[in-house]
Design brief:
By secondary structure, this protein is mostly helical. It is built from eleven helices and two strands, in the order H-H-H-E-E-H-H-H-H-H-H-H-H. A two-stranded antiparallel ribbon has the order 1-2.
Length: about 250
């Protein structure tokens, strides 16, 4: 109820008492009174003589934080709605978004990866290769390899977007499954990306990731019989992500 009262005070634009706030929040005056006392103690509101209460700077800050969280939640819900929903053709849409995100991540990872982070990437790459050549599923290792590269880029928002795209309805399983017949190519691609990151060659890492994702798209089309589209995402060259400038994290 704290947020509701803060919003009601902001909407009123003038100090308001328990009765007015009770009507605005559809709660009893007794309940509103208890919440108001707690909010005063927390420094979110302050009394104005006998006119009621008004927001403090701290109360306004709390409202702004809540609004920002609301926006993030809405964006997350929207992203879920466009991510993989079981429709195989939707996999191509997800891949086009990956093309915009992951090449830049790989380039930045080449500049920022610590030795410890490189070791983690190596472990996933070797684990992926081992399982594939044992004839076993390596979905999780494939996923973790890509998510770890995004994490190394230190862009938390981008990492979360990528994680959501790949894990929603287990889309990453579909991508790995599509490439099972091309396991040598999968393994080679991961090690080419890894070698470029290890060599601190951002441009080569970006190009290696572009080539890998392009190959995944081809596998998805072939396995699930999806027709070619015309150029992928609007304004984005298929198979290529923008190179980061001056070592900056991709935005």
């Amino acid at each position: 109820m704290t947020i509701e009262i803060l919003q009601a005070l902001q909407s009123a634009g003038v100090p308001a008492g328990a009765k007015a706030l009770s009507e605005a929040t559809d709660a009893s005056q007794a309940t509103v009174g208890r919440v108001l006392r707690r909010m005063e103690e927390d420094g979110l509101i302050e009394p104005v003589s006998n006119k009621g209460r008004k927001l403090t700077p701290e109360g306004l800050r709390r409202l702004r934080e809540h609004s920002a969280s609301d926006v993030k939640r809405r964006l997350a819900r929207d992203l879920v709605n466009i991510s993989f929903d079981g429709d195989k053709e939707r996999l191509i849409e997800v891949m086009r978004i990956r093309e915009m995100l992951e090449p830049g991540c790989a380039a930045v990872a080449a500049l920022r990866a610590t030795q410890e982070e490189l070791t983690v990437l190596e472990n996933y790459a070797f684990g992926h290769r081992y399982l594939l050549f044992q004839g076993k599923a390596a979905n999780r290792e494939d996923l973790n390899f890509h998510l770890s590269i995004a994490a190394v880029s230190q862009n938390q928002t981008l990492s979360k977007i990528l994680e959501l795209l790949l894990t929603d309805n287990n889309a990453y399983v579909e991508f790995s499954r599509a490439g099972e017949a091309e396991r040598d190519a999968q393994v080679t691609a991961h090690f080419e990306i890894l070698d470029a990151i290890r060599s601190r060659d951002g441009d080569r890492a970006r190009k290696a990731m572009c080539a890998h994702l392009k190959h995944v798209i081809e596998d998805v089309r072939r396995v699930y019989h999806i027709a070619e589209d015309r150029g992928g995402a609007p304004g984005v060259e298929p198979g290529c992500g923008a190179a980061p400038e001056d070592g900056a994290s991709p935005s």
